[in-house]
């Protein structure tokens, strides 16, 4: 579980990789709105086919996509069971003691789980085809209007960038701490529930101390370099909108219109 695979960039030469990160973020948000408004099989088939086409266009290995969504499979299973047993609309299909399964519950479990699965694949796709630096620069440019009204737009984007870089580092720290605790006899996977919960406390405390140490070191490094925010800051690779970005925006708009017509 500590091997973080969500959001790992996969290098490839594809139209989706070369697309401007700002356009990818906006199109993803529009696509997610469309996905969560799906209410029928035809709409679901359309968005699933669209996301499948994006996967082919991105030239990302199927193993990378599966690895990126695998940690969230348990969430999808819980969501499916919750809708299956607690949605009471429609006819009763089966009864399991105090719980009953209805036709509406089966439909809701299938629809909601499929919607979340499509949304997760679409969300992982933008992370698989966009580097953290490109995402940070895109958020910096998208939040730059906030700086004109006195809000820290660049600082918010920088915090987002640092967050993405800290996640894998803290995962490695947690793995090292767990190994150290195991060598000292602190077995985390044995005993009852209460013992396992108590054994996690030293790991959390050590991980918190490590995170604060890294944050303090980063703050000192920024202060030593006289960092003053994004005022006058330039980028090595300037992002520009062109014909591919216009085509992506038009394709996304066409998909939303098609979903509205089907609905």
From TrEMBL:
InterPro entries referenced in this protein's UniProt entry, alphabetically: ABC/ECF_trnsptr_transmembrane
Query: A GO CC term?
Result: plasma membrane
Membrane topology note: Multi-pass membrane protein
- Key word Transmembrane helix present in the record? yes
The UniProt keywords, alphabetically, are: Membrane, Transmembrane, Transmembrane helix
Q: Where are the transmembrane segments?
A: 25-58, 64-86, 106-129
Q: What protein name does the entry list? A: Energy-coupling factor transporter transmembrane protein EcfT
Q: From what organism does this protein derive? A: Candidatus Olsenella pullistercoris
The organism's lineage is: Bacteria, Bacillati, Actinomycetota, Coriobacteriia, Coriobacteriales
């Amino acid at each position: 579980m500590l091997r973080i695979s969500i959001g790992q960039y996969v290098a490839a030469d594809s139209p989706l990789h070369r697309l401007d990160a700002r356009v990818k973020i906006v199109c993803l948000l529009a696509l997610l709105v469309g996905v969560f408004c799906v209410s029928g099989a035809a709409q679901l088939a359309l968005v699933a086919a669209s996301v499948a086409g994006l996967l082919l266009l991105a030239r990302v290995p199927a193993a990378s996509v599966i690895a990126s969504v695998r940690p969230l499979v348990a969430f999808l299973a819980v969501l499916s069971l919750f809708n299956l047993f607690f949605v009471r609309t429609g006819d009763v299909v089966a009864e399991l003691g105090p719980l009953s399964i209805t036709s509406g519950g089966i439909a809701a479990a299938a629809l909601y789980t499929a919607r979340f699965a499509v949304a997760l694949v679409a969300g992982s796709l933008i992370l698989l085809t966009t580097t953290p630096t490109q995402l940070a620069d895109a958020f910096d440019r998208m939040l730059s209007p906030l700086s004109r009204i006195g809000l820290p737009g660049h600082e918010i984007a920088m915090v987002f960038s640092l967050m993405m870089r800290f996640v894998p580092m803290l995962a490695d720290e947690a793995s090292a701490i767990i190994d150290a605790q195991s060598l000292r006899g602190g077995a985390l996977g044995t005993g009852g529930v209460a013992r396992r919960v108590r054994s996690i406390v030293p790991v959390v405390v050590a991980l918190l101390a490590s995170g604060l140490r890294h944050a303090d070191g980063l703050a000192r490094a920024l202060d030593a370099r006289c960092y003053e925010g994004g005022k006058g800051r330039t980028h090595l690779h300037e992002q520009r909108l062109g014909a591919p970005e216009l085509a992506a925006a038009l394709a996304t708009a066409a998909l939303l219109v098609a979903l509205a017509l089907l609905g």
